[in-house]
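Subject: Sanity check before I submit

Could someone independently write out the structure tokens for this chain? I want to compare against mine line by line before I put it in a report. The sequence has 199 residues.
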Amino acid sequence: MPSVQPAAPATQSVNLAAEVARLREQLRLRDKALAHARKQAPPTFEGKIDPIVAEDWLRSVEAIFDHMELNDRQRVSCAVYLLKMDARIWWHTFSKKYYSAALLATNVDEFVTLVQGNLFVTNYAQKFNRLEKFAPEVVPTETLRAQRFIRGLKPMITRDVMMTSVELVSYAEVLDRELEAEYLEDRIWKDNAARRENY
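---
Independent answer below. Compare away.
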């Protein structure tokens, strides 16, 4: 008599369905970005040694990507599509060497635990922007990106940003408020130091 296997829990099937839906949406967006990029008639790059040719190609492609308002992941996907011959071979070698699973995991971990610490807001933003490219699933929306950025700030700056904002939904808005808060905090420290010297 055949043994009867217990049915998988409903939560597993829901999670699997959600993951499949998310992956389908990612593929749809990638395909849409590639189709849009093809319509812009971008130049291909074959890996010529001439740096002027490479720079011209890069500027042309960046202008198209800026016009299309692509995110970093979409830019890489479209740029790789435009690489031909030696350039394509170089990319495959580079991506295997420099984007190993261990390196990606390390960068994701660093992003997830990133805090401002002793950094200025601009330095923290640079590091945040560099590392977030490795963890798009951690901040898939602009709102989550802004929230993650705020969570890593110094408590005083976070407080100032949160107190002055009705609703911050974009990373750019958050960064603007944080730079202003840091500037004001610096002014307060300087004013207090000047008062102490005068007493």
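---
OP: Matches mine. For the report I'm noting this point. Residues 10-98 form one domain.
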